[in-house]
Automatic annotation (TrEMBL):
InterPro entries found in the cross-reference section: GATase_2_dom (IPR017932), Ntn_hydrolases_N (IPR029055), PRTase-like (IPR029057), PRTase_dom (IPR000836), PurF (IPR005854), PurF_N (IPR035584)
Top-level taxonomy: Bacteria, Pseudomonadati, Pseudomonadota, Gammaproteobacteria, Aeromonadales
Keyword Phosphoprotein: no
Gene that this sequence comes from: purF
Protein name per Swiss-Prot or TrEMBL: Amidophosphoribosyltransferase
EC number: 2.4.2.14
Cofactor binding note: Binds 1 Mg(2+) ion per subunit.
Top EC category: transferase
Pathway: Purine metabolism; IMP biosynthesis via de novo pathway; N(1)-(5-phospho-D-ribosyl)glycinamide from 5-phospho-alpha-D-ribose 1-diphosphate: step 1/2
Amino acid sequence: MCGVVGIVAHSPVNLTLYDALTVLQHRGQDAAGIVTLDEGNFRQRKANGLVSDVFQQKHMMRLKGNVGIGHCRYPTAGSSSAAEAQPFYVNSPFGIALAHNGNLTNARELKVKCDSIFRHTNTHSDSELLLNIFAWHLQNITQCQHLPSAEELFEAVRGVNKEINGGYAVVSLIIGVGIVAFRDPFGIRPLVLGHRVNEEGKDEYMVASESVALSVCGFELVRDVKPGEAIFISVDGKLHSAICADNCKLQPCVFEYVYFARPDSTMNGVSVYAARVNMGTKLAHKLQREFSHLKIDAVIPIPETSCDIAVQIARILGVPYRQGFVKNRYIGRTFIMPGQKQRKKSVRSKLSPIASEFKGKRVLLVDDSIVRGTTSGQIVDMAKEAGAEAVYFASAAPEVRFANVYGIDMPTKRELIAYNRTNEEICKLIGADALIYQDLKDLEDSVREENPELTDFEDSVFTGNYITPGVDEEYFAYLDQQRSDDAKADKAWKDSNESLEIYNI
């Protein structure tokens, strides 16, 4: 999962892009980058690390220009090397920079295509492939004879959408032209459009992964970018849009609402906070129906995503809500740590139990989801070590049994604790005295209640049903090679050595 942002304004955008990436940091902590357009040239800074570490004052002073895009990243199929930090850049045609949130499921075919049309890619990233496919279509349309019109840009996006499969939200910056942003035909990955009027009465626009980035930067949420839609904002601030794909249907990733998005965001017409409160309501009702025999002394969230859910459960059950864990806010999100050993090590560094809230009590721990189970098992151990008499574990999401192929780092089925296991087996593995999962219908209804027009979701991690073509066993075998923790570690080592060889010439 990544965060993307693009801004067209009439004053410098470097600080606004920085602020936007800071509030999108939860979507990726591996690397960050900004590209601005200044008098016909790109200004760029990107590197591994948090936004606050990547951009120092000297970098910000160099990022001049009134138009720019930004990206914060964590890796899925690619490695964590600095070479794969975004945005990416190609010089032909015109000069294009691009940042991408999501994952392309036909990246191998796209690599063959790029090789056949003599467009070289220098990384393992599917985002660089996407950039080159877009550049190739734009080059064919304009023949490099003139800067593209809005309709020519939309024609290029139509060509891209016909060639790529997967989930994607894209922002691109073209020298002398402006920003082109587009979303996959199912709207799997989020993208929103914002607007503000500056002090001189001129229109300024912003696109971003989540609405919270708009509000923090002083933009008002206009709407979501539609599935298959492209937005073009010219360098002088004119907005154009068009649907650039066939058979578009909104099926957003339901896991965004469970875990990734900030609660103060609104996506696809849904308040993330309200959806999570609904999740708590439905999970509490399930506890009342099916687990009324459990004697619960306190409801304790695993901070922070599940806090709103746990509060609602406690309210409905009439049980005290307690903060039983103190979170070290300077430790990254363990779910998106790139390696299993690093994830295991980070859990106890991230959370510390308050012993008095556990000693002699029967506690219900509430988390947003259980993925690999590593974190859940260690948290149950911590609760029992703190003196809990019984530890029950509730998940606001159903059993995660299948890999995600649209940009979330759930690499292989074998690494998912729920794959080919019963709930009783999972409960035993994490050491809990009872395990309660949210029903899929209840999860989706929790989101749908905020926007009844959301008839369907991308819910493949729970069902194994993939809504784009080409996702089959052969593809998963390929993913196993690319995405396992061992594969990532090996790829990172190779990238590190290749970089040393390149730069030491």
